[in-house]
């Protein structure tokens, strides 16, 4: 479960280089926004790690019904947390940003607020990605989970390129989300294909 994150981290480096070219305000805003983002996405990643273990155990026991229930239940948990996170960000993003930056106004504050607001709309995409990527991992399809990291690399690379050539900081606010969506789409397709070919999963 590490290599796919290493691949996606390359995209983060590419995006960071693009941010650096946009000036100190963009660098400070994205850095602060990303630190705050992690408060809301790290619990989702922990749930994803638990899903990988759960899937592996039940797949090995050929308890197919429990696999389906596990996916459904974990998606409900991620959706619930996404809604809670959205509410927290909607009502309390300004004091949270103030706590991190130490200021309550100015260009960096406003850019951080923009970053968090846009990110909050897409949290369920990140939560879903954690479920389906780790489901692939738990079912023994590690290579597909690793390749999913390339989707994040592509998304962040596109965002970084567009930020440099034309769209500036606005596209930076969408880059992570674009990475999540591309990788999630890949994981859904990969899971659908592998499930149809798996003799254990087709027993039902």
Structure description:
It is a single chain. By secondary structure, this protein is mostly helical. The chain has one domain. The protein is 87% helix and 0% strand. The chain has seven helices and no strands. It starts with a helix and ends in a 7-residue tail after the last helix. The model has no long low-confidence stretch (mean pLDDT 86).
Can you count the beta strands? 0
Shape: globular
Mean pLDDT across residues: 86
What distance lies between the first and last C-alpha atoms, to the nearest angstrom?
A: 28 Å
Strand content: under 5%
- Biggest β-sheet strands, sense, barrel: none
| Low-pLDDT ranges | none
Radius of gyration: 18 Å
Order of helices and strands: HHHHHHH
The tally of domains stands at 1
Helix content: over 70%
Return the structural class. Answer: mainly alpha
Q: Helical element count?
A: 7
Question: What are the key terms here?
Answer:
mainly alpha, about 200 residues, single chain, globular
């Amino acid at each position: 479960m590490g290599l796919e994150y290493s691949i996606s981290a390359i995209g983060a480096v590419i995006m960071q280089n693009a941010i650096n070219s946009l000036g100190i305000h963009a660098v400070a805003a994205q850095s602060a926004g990303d630190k705050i983002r992690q408060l809301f996405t790290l619990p989702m990643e922990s749930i994803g790690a638990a899903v990988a273990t759960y899937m592996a155990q039940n797949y090995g026991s050929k308890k197919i019904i429990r696999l389906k229930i596990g996916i459904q239940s974990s998606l409900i948990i991620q959706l619930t947390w996404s809604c809670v996170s959205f509410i927290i960000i909607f009502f309390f993003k300004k004091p949270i940003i103030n706590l991190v930056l130490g200021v309550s106004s100015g260009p960096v504050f406003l850019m951080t607020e923009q970053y968090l607001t846009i990110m909050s709309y897409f949290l369920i995409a990140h939560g879903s990605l954690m479920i389906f990527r780790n489901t692939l991992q738990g079912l023994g399809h590690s290579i597909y989970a690793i390749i999913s990291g390339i989707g994040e690399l592509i998304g962040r690379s596109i965002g970084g390129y567009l930020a440099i050539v034309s769209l500036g900081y606005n596209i930076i606010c969408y880059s992570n989300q674009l990475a999540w969506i591309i990788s999630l789409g890949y994981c859904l397709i990969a899971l659908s294909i592998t499930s149809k070919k798996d003799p254990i999963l087709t027993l039902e």
